[in-house]
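Progress note, project year one: complex with nicotinamide-adenine-dinucleotide.
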Amino acid sequence: MDVIGFIGLGNMGGPMAANLVKAGYKVLGFDLVEQLRSAAAQTGVEIVSDLVSAVSAADIVITMLPHGRAVVAVWSEALPKARPGALFIDSSTIDVASARNVHSLAAAAGFAALDAPVSGGTGGAAAGTLTFMCGGEDIAFARAQPILAHMGKKIVLCGGAGSGQAAKICNNMILGATMIATAEGFVLAEKLGLSHQALFDVASTSSGQSWSLTTYCPVPGPVPTSPANRDYVPGFATALMLKDMKLSQDAAASSGADTPLSALAAAMFAEFDQSGAGGVDFSGIIRMIRMGE
Ligand code: NAD
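Model obtained:
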């Protein structure tokens, strides 16, 4: 059975590594934070003292890190120490340029690589029901698939290097703009004396339907499991949505895509974040929209 080196044992990486242990893999884990190393050890991850020790004995290296700079730094240090034939997988959400950069670094060092960002949040990471969006060669995807299947339910190959990250940020750009449009719909309904439930009943079965409405409804009531019913405790925190909106706008700028609606959505999430709401669910932006009245 493959030995897995897992770098980054935070909110997502911790439970993902735990699911690999449950599936019977030997997982060598490393994080910069001592408290997270101890927490991962409790789930059966074998904690090693540094990055190189996690990588040099691994057949599969998985990184789950905060941003592109960290992924480039970790892969640059890890690749020269990796076992011949090892496969590198990055599941962080990062910019497409950094994703393509680490694919090139891996290829130059003779290693197969896959970008494999996820959706599904910390709940999906704990339950092993994440969606993986992958970019890379078919052969790397085929090798990664059975391992990713222990952490996720849906695993999609989107194309070549960086395509997983591209799919992730395009999806989340749609999500960010759709949530704001949905929130504006409810705020207008309030002004017009239309009940939340009436708008929901019509829009959820009409052309206004979306995931933001039917799963993450930004007002309490119509969807009892949405964060609006628990005072906008995330869920998906505004700071993470803002990160993804910024990545989408950077990608739009560098590729020459015109995305004015999403640019405005990104600016609105930045304003909401700056108001101290970074830890609030992103659907809570309806409060800022209401206050703008
Ligand atoms: P996190 O901050 O909880 O975890 C990242 C971990 O990486 C931290 O524990 C940090 O100490 C560690 N780290 C950073 N540099 C390191 C290094 N050089 N060596 C070893 N460890 C290092 O973040 P998270 O919520 O687990 O998210 C991880 C990634 O997944 C991010 O890119 C995020 O955008 C993405 N993501 C998060 C969610 C979510 O709901 N939290 C959902 C989907 C995708």
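The first helix runs from residue 13 to 22.
The pocket of nicotinamide-adenine-dinucleotide is lined by residues 7-13, 30-33, 36, 51, 64-66, 70, 73-74, 92-93, 118-119, 121-122, 240, 243 (CB under 6 Å).
No further modelling is planned for this target in the current period.
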